[in-house]
Amino acid sequence: MLGGKWAPALILLALALVCTLPAACGGGGSEATASPEAKPTQSAPTPEASPTQGAATVDMRNTAFHPQTLVVSRGATVTWTNSDSVSHTVTGDNIEMESGTMGKGDTFSFTFTEAGEFDYHCSIHPFMKGRVVVQ
Asked: For residue 130, what are the domain limits?
């Protein structure tokens, strides 16, 4: 059975395949119509509305950063914890930030003193990406 981190992609693929059938997506006409009860959906999670002040945490599990985007106030200290059974790093893309290799249970903390958007990744698993937005 497939699942885990691939489940959302598989669902989107299945929906795309179903919607290639004219009867499945409202007929063969070229105009799309929405029913009155249709509601817009959100495709990606957005950062929390108000910034975290003081201290915030990011968990590394299932080879991903949770949350992927974190909003904090200037001066906040963010602590990453590796909850995976494999090693990870926290490596800044546009900021001097490097945790070194972190084994299971290891933590790394960094204090953000300037406002901006700071992207980072795991140098061992480059597909693992995260962002800290400092307000």
From this structure: 55-134
Whole-prediction pTM value?
Answer: 0.63
Gap between the Cα atoms of 58 and 65, Å rounded: 6
- Give CA–CA dist 126/11, Å, rounded: 24
**How many domains are contained in the chain?**
1
Q: For the chain, give the longest Cα–Cα distance.
A: 57
Residue 63 inside a domain? The answer is: yes
The pLDDT value recorded for residue 53 is 76
Beta partners for residue 131, in sequence order: 69, 119
CB 96 within 8 Å of CB 108: no
Residue 8 lies inside a defined structural domain of this protein: no
Mean pLDDT by 10 residues, the chain (135 residues): 51 43 38 35 43 88 98 97 98 97 98 97 98 97
In a domain, 41, yes or no: no
